[in-house]
Amino acid sequence: MHGLMNRAVQDFLTVTYGEAAWRSIAAEAGVPERGFEALLTYDDALIGVVLRVASRRLRKRSSDLLEDMGTFLVSHPRMERVRRLLRFGGSDFDDFLQSLEDLPARAELALPTLDAIPRFVLRDDGRGRFLLTATYAIPGISHIMMGALRAIADDYGALVLIEAVEPAEGRPDDGESVRITLSLADFRAGRGFDLAGSGEGRGG
């Protein structure tokens, strides 16, 4: 897995729970003493170990921890580049959802060696209801999606309901899914965004 993804997990745990908590988690999980390097690659299994250790040490359910991480990846100022990559996909939440299948290609344009972006498939019933499925190396991607999608919906000012979908029995390779109901695309003013600026402030 690309080091950027591992580093994002490290940043989430450090910012949210403190440096001491991260160091104890990293030591038990076998993370290199200097932490994750953004330009290196790591075995996919390592980040899973980190998350399991974090869940136990922090006494948080894995699903809750992953959902919090999804929110962090979109909403924390340190992750502004992730937010901008996602917001570039559309002018409203519906457009954003429709753009997710192209997200890996957009990410690879920005960083050609970045091959650890989930692959998405979106099903749209045409009535504001969607089924979004992701295939990823780390189990629990649906919970990360829930946190990230709620945060990005808030960013757009949309009112949505997001629910995890139980995986089809005996079909683990089909990915993990969430069901999204878009109730109001313009529930309130969204957070301002433009390609040239910082994206701070509120705007329509």
TrEMBL record:
Taxonomic placement: Bacteria, Pseudomonadati, Pseudomonadota, Alphaproteobacteria, Rhodobacterales
Domain Heme NO-binding stretches: 2-161
Database matches in PANTHER family: GUANYLATE CYCLASE SOLUBLE SUBUNIT BETA-2, SOLUBLE GUANYLATE CYCLASE GCY-32-RELATED
Source organism: Hasllibacter halocynthiae
GO molecular function, one term: heme binding
InterPro entries, A to Z: H-NOX_domain_sf, Heme_NO-bd, NO_sig/Golgi_transp_ligand-bd
One Pfam family this sequence matches: HNOB
Listed name of the protein: Heme-NO-binding protein
